UniProtKB/TrEMBL annotation:
InterPro entries: ACAD10-like, ACAD10_11_N, Aminoglycoside_PTrfase, Kinase-like_dom_sf. Its EC number is 2.7.1.-. It holds the Pfam family APH. Keywords: Transferase. The keyword Transferase applies. Gene3D superfamilies: 3.90.1200.10, Phosphorylase Kinase, domain 1. It comes from Phaeobacter italicus. This is Putative aminoglycoside phosphotransferase. Residues 29-252 form the Aminoglycoside phosphotransferase domain. The keyword Transferase applies. SUPFAM superfamilies: Protein kinase-like (PK-like) (SSF56112).
Length: 342
């Protein structure tokens, strides 16, 4: 058996032969270092490169690692104003490599690991963030009925639903009590905003490192990592961007805290929110602090799950999982601070 860091290449080759060009002969694979949730591989074939994403091995939380949902939403958005990678095949037979997987286009371009984007000019940074705003607005303007996603998520109060879901996920991954996390969950539940009727397609983890941009420009070529996408409230995605920017800069935090944004050509949080509102014809957003606090909570719950998978031996990169898990208390504290400003 040939393998590449946990994937049976012989099994992939046998299964995909006849289904996609290039799999009728020897293939190679290289595991991407990113992609903590669903292990991702660059597959090289005689016909060119592909990307394969699979569920991780081992026991998994219910509804997590939904590669079938990633495949479906990217298929639905293929002809929309939201750039996505072309998807080719979904395998839901776990007997092939031990878990579900799908194969998609390898999109060539630039990927920025954090919003500082240190290797480009201020003007280029501004153009990339402007494109980030455009794509986010386009995503939230998608008419779900026209792309066949009417049943892609439940109806009702999105924040109440998500608070319940991620609280359960957090408790299932809990290693030891975190006082600030307990306080944040209780505060968010006590202060839930009324359902304002806004609902549409949301990405669930919209940030710059989940995007591929043109090699020589600011155009977005693909939004990646759709595992957390669903039907929900658009402010959750917007608040998720601002949440990430409030983290420390660098490889782990990937934020903009303490950075001189004006000197770097980057907008302030308020300027980004205003540009988004202008694109969508919104007068403004009330109680944005609640949506920001919710984003900190949900990311803390996700990182707790990453940490638990690392401890259980199921993480794609156990050391990285441990480092990410260490951020859970910090995210909880930031969520409480945001809620206090709401």
């Amino acid at each position: 058996m040939s393998s590449a860091q946990g994937i049976d290449l012989d099994a992939v080759q046998r299964y995909m032969a006849g289904r996609l060009a290039g799999f009728d002969s020897t293939i190679t694979a290289e595991k991407f270092q990113t992609g903590q949730s669903n292990p991702t591989f660059l597959i090289t074939t005689s016909a060119g490169n592909y990307v394969l994403r699979r569920k991780p091995a081992g026991a998994l939380l219910k509804s997590a690692h939904a590669v079938d949902r990633e495949f479906r939403v990217q298929s639905a958005l293929a002809d929309s104003d939201v750039p996505v990678a072309k998807v080719y095949h979904l395998c839901q037979d776990p007997e092939v490599i031990g878990s579900d997987f799908y194969v998609m286009e390898h999109v060539v371009g630039r990927n920025f690991s954090d919003p500082v984007m240190g290797d480009i000019s201020p003007a280029e940074r501004g153009a990339v963030i402007e494109e980030m705003s455009r794509v986010l607005a386009a995503l939230h303007d998608v008419k779900i009925g026209e792309v066949g996603l009417e049943d892609y998520g439940p109806q009702g109060n999105y924040f109440a639903r998500q608070l319940g879901r991620w609280s359960k996920q957090y408790r299932a991954s809990e290693v030891e009590p975190i006082e600030d996390m307990d306080a944040l969950i209780a505060a968010l539940d006590a202060d839930l905003p009324e359902d304002d009727g806004q609902s549409g397609l949301v990405h669930g983890d919209y940030r710059i490192d989940n995007m591929i941009f043109a090699p020589d420009g600011s155009a977005c070529r693909a939004v990646l990592d759709w595992e957390l996408s669903t039907l929900g409230h658009p402010y959750a995605d917007l608040a998720g961007v601002i949440m990430q920017w409030q983290m420390p800069p660098g490889r782990e935090g990937r934020g903009l805290a303490g950075v001189d944004r004006a000197a770097l050509g980057l907008p302030s949080d308020a300027e980004f929110v205003d540009r988004y509102c202008a694109r969508r014809g919104l007068a403004g957003i009330d109680r944005f602090g609640y949506y920001l606090a919710f984003s900190f909570f949900r990311m803390a719950a996700i990182l707790q799950g990453v940490r638990k998978r690392g401890l259980d031996g199921n993480a794609s990169n156990p050391k990285h999982a441990a480092r990410l898990g260490a951020y859970v208390p910090e995210f909880a504290r930031a969520g409480l601070a945001a809620l206090a400003r709401a």
